[in-house]
Every structure is written in C-alpha cells, then in structure tokens.
Specification:
Elements: H1 17-20, E1 30-32, E2 39-41, E3 81-83, E4 90-93, E5 98-99, E6 108-109, E7 121-124, E8 130-133, E9 137-139, E10 147-149, H2 158-178, E11 192-197, E12 201-203, E13 216-222, E14 227-234, E15 242-250, E16 259-261, E17 272-274, E18 277-279, E19 284-288, E20 291-296, E21 313-318, E22 322-328, E23 333-339, H3 360-367, H4 388-397, H5 400-413, H6 420-432, H7 438-442, H8 448-453
Antiparallel strand pairs: 1-2, 3-4, 5-6, 7-8, 9-10, 11-12, 11-23, 13-14, 14-15, 15-16, 16-17, 17-18, 19-20, 20-21, 21-22, 22-23
Helix pairs in contact: 5-6
C-alpha cells in the first residue's frame, strides 16, 4: 500500500502524476495491484481521507467495482485493515494489515507475497504503470516523464593527438630545413678574441678552429658597419697551403675609409696603406675616420715561434670597441682581433657562443667561400695558385664522392666569374678545412728539390 502523500523525489518509486493522472485532490491515495502491476485509486466515503493510507472516520465504505479499500493510516478514525473488491471487502486485521489479493474473499496477512515491492524500481510511462530497474538513468523530457540511459561521457582524444603530432612535425621540419642556432647571452663587458697565425691557423670568437688553405680573398669579420677581409695565399714554405698575406679594414664605422696592411717583403706588398696611399714607412702613428693607427715593435705575440724575428706590429684602435693588431712578418701576417659581442660573421665565426657552427663549411654557407669582386677592399690584385702537392693530396686523401659534393657547394658559394683554380682551392678547403695540420700531410708529396728549397732535407 502506498500513500502518495508520503512520496518524495528520493523514494524508490517515482510517479509521473502529470502524465498518468489528473489529480483533483492533493492527497489522493493509490495501491499496487499485485496481479496486474498497476496502481489503482482508493475510494473514500464521505470526502477527503485523513491520515496517510487510512480511510475516513467511521470505517470503510464500499469501493467502486475493481477498486480497493485501504485502512490503517495514521489519520483520525482509523479502521481495521480491509481487503476485497466491491462490496465484499474483508476487514481482517488491525490498522496497518496488508492486503494479499483483491476480489471476493481477498485474504489479509502481515507477510504475504505479491504486495508492494521495494528496491531500485521506478514508475514510468504514460498511464501504463510499467516498472523498470533503475541503474544509471536520469529524468529527461518535457512533461512526459520519459527516462533515458545516461551513458558515461567518453573523452575524444583524437583532436589532442593530432595537434601534438602536428607540433612534432613542425619541429622536425624546423630542424631539417631551418636548423637550430644556439646563442649564448654574454656577461656584461665580455670581449671576444679571434686569432690568426701560421698557415693559417684560426681561433674564432667562440673558440672554434677552422682552417682555410685555398688561395683567395675571404671575409674575416662582416656586418653592415664593420668590414674586415683577408687575402690567404700559399708560400713555398707551406707547399701552396695558404697563410694570411694581407688584411684590409673598412666600413661605415670608420667613415668608409680603407686601411690595408701587407707583409714586410716587397714581393708580398711591403706597405701600410690608407685609402690606397702608403703611410707609416717607419714606426709612428696617425688617425683616420675615428681610427687610431700606431706602428711599433711592442706587443704580445700570437705565435711564440715567431719570437726569433724582429717585431713590426700595427695596432688599430677602432670605433665600436674594435681592436685589430697585425704582426708583420717577411711573407705573411698574424692577426689578433678583439671586440664585444656583435652580429658578425666570417672566418672569425658568428660570435654567438656556439663553437659547433663555426666550421669551415658552415662559414662558407653563411657568407660565401670567397669575397666577390664587387665587395673587394684590396688595392692590389693577386693570382690564386693550386700546387702539385695540393692536387696530389686532394686525389689521395679526399674521396671522389666528397670532391663531387664539395664542387657543388663551391659552385654555389663562389663568385660567378671564378676560374678552375679558384674552384679547386675551394674544394681543398671543403676537404681539409677542419684539419689544423694539413701541411704535415702535404709535405709527403713534396719533391726532393722542393724539400731542399724549403729546408726539409
């Protein structure tokens, strides 16, 4: 027996009153017919029921055909429990007795089966009184009281996975086609040093050790304001492997004046020039375009092997805290360049704190293998050579595959008017540019006469 006045949303039985019944009274009572599973209304005699589940004061009144009379509520005038259909209702117990069946002779009892069933059940539908098991359902719909299964929310990870995959692919493309450049933030006041000595050994601002053995003109330091070039040429003592033979400085930072320094011997130039005019034939000093040039015999050497020779050193104090020291020897030069970190490139490297990207090949890729004629700073020309020792060394110690790849790079990186000697010199750089001691290998190919001439015998 169910007293609808006691039902709440938390009950195990829910009634869709709007859809199933039009209630004239707010405390209408219903019972569950155990045979049909339907909820049927309880008739009340004389007016409204008093108390949940009981009949009106004065006892049970005949129920309409098919109806059921219920007593046992807590209201005033509670009567013994009665069961039965129509006028044959049977009163068979105290208030609260349970009806076991309907119809004539319906029995009563406290524990008979088929009565009201509790548990995880809900009343649903439109007036049919059907029952279903409650699991994970929720109330939806408009007025009908329909129910539907509330499926767990399934998260779709596909968009996230596709987005992550796209980022990964972009990273790979950047690595292979753009490349990653590591840049170091330098401490305030940091001064970098680039050194040149011998045939020529080089130490970049970042500490790398590339070498440049082929004849020709190269960028040493280059940016929009600062332009420093070097001419690297072979000597008989180096069997054609180049050393630094000349250096030139120009650019907006010195008012586009041009300063050139050559070795001491006349056959290699033998002069200091400003804007093409020879200056300082003896020790002394001068200034031009904000640059102070001092020529003397004092200064710390780059290569201690040269300490046996007389010193002839050119000191240039240049704008933008740039300093260039040139050590003039008989047929070549040593160099020392200092400056604070700047956006530069050339044989001294790109000054970004990353030693790994200052290889000979990487520098050629960035600034070209040689200086084009339109950018040349030198007043006097020179003819490049490719010696027999260099040719034999290239054939024996550089594979045909490497030579072919190097030639492709050189054709791309050299000026358009370069000749075969210039291409071979560039290929030699590509093959041996990271070998600091290529001269020791070249000596293997020197003839007996050459060896005598350079003092190797």
């Amino acid at each position: 027996v169910i007293d609808v006045s006691t039902l709440s949303l938390s009950s195990t039985v829910w009634l869709d009153f709007q859809a199933s019944h039009k209630m004239a009274q707010p405390q209408q009572q219903f019972v569950l017919d155990a045979r049909t599973g339907q909820m049927v209304p309880v008739a009340a005699a004389g007016g409204a029921a008093a108390g949940g589940g009981g009949v009106v004061a004065g006892g049970a009144a005949p129920a309409p055909a098919g109806g059921v009379v219920v007593s046992g509520g807590a209201g005033a005038g509670a009567a013994p429990g009665c069961c039965g259909a129509g006028g044959a209702a049977v009163c068979c117990g105290p208030a609260g007795a349970v009806c076991c069946s309907t119809g004539t002779g319906g029995g009563c009892g406290a524990g008979c089966s088929g009565g009201l069933q509790t548990g995880a059940m809900m009343y649903v539908g439109s007036s049919k009184g059907d029952w279903i098991t409650e699991t994970t359902y929720r109330y939806v719909g408009t007025n009908k009281g329909d129910l539907m299964f509330a499926a767990p929310v399934q998260r779709n990870w596909l968009p996230c996975c596709l987005a992550l995959l796209g980022l990964l692919l972009l990273g790979l493309l950047a690595f292979f086609f753009i490349g990653f450049t590591t840049t170091t933030t330098f401490a305030a006041g940091h001064i970098g040093t680039c050194l040149f000595w011998g045939d020529p050994h080089v130490q970049t601002f970042d500490g790398a050790r590339p070498s440049f053995y082929g004849d020709g003109e190269y960028w040493i330091v280059k940016n929009d304001n600062i332009k420093i070039q070097g001419r690297y040429m072979g000597t008989k003592y180096t069997l054609g492997l180049a050393s630094t033979q000349k250096v030139a400085v120009s650019g907006a930072f010195i008012g586009n004046h041009k300063i050139e320094v050559e070795p001491m011997q006349k056959e290699f130039g033998g002069a200091i020039l400003v804007d093409g005019v020879e200056v300082l034939p003896e020790f002394g000093s001068l200034s031009v375009g904000g640059a102070i040039i001092k020529y003397d015999d004092s200064g710390e050497l780059v290569d201690q092997a040269t300490s046996r020779w007389a010193k002839h050193i050119v000191h240039m104090d240049l704008p933008e805290d740039v300093s260039l020291t040139v050590y003039r020897w008989g047929n070549y030069l040593d160099l020392k360049i200092t400056m604070p970190p700047k956006d530069v490139d050339g044989s001294c490297g790109n000054f970004n704190g990353n030693v790994d990207d200052d290889t000979t090949q990487a520098i050629f890729d960035r600034v070209g293998a040689r200086v084009p004629a339109t950018d040349m700073l030198f007043s006097r020309g020179a003819s490049a050579q490719f010696t027999p020792e260099e040719k034999e060394m290239l054939q024996k110690y550089c594979s045909s595959t490497t030579v072919a790849e190097a030639k492709l790079h050189c054709v791309k990186e050299l000026p358009a008017d370069v000749n075969e000697v210039g291409i071979n010199a560039c290929i030699f750089d590509q093959c041996f540019g990271m070998n600091e001691h290529a001269l020791q290998t070249a000596k293997q190919f020197a003839s007996e006469e050459v060896r005598k001439n350079i003092g190797l015998e």
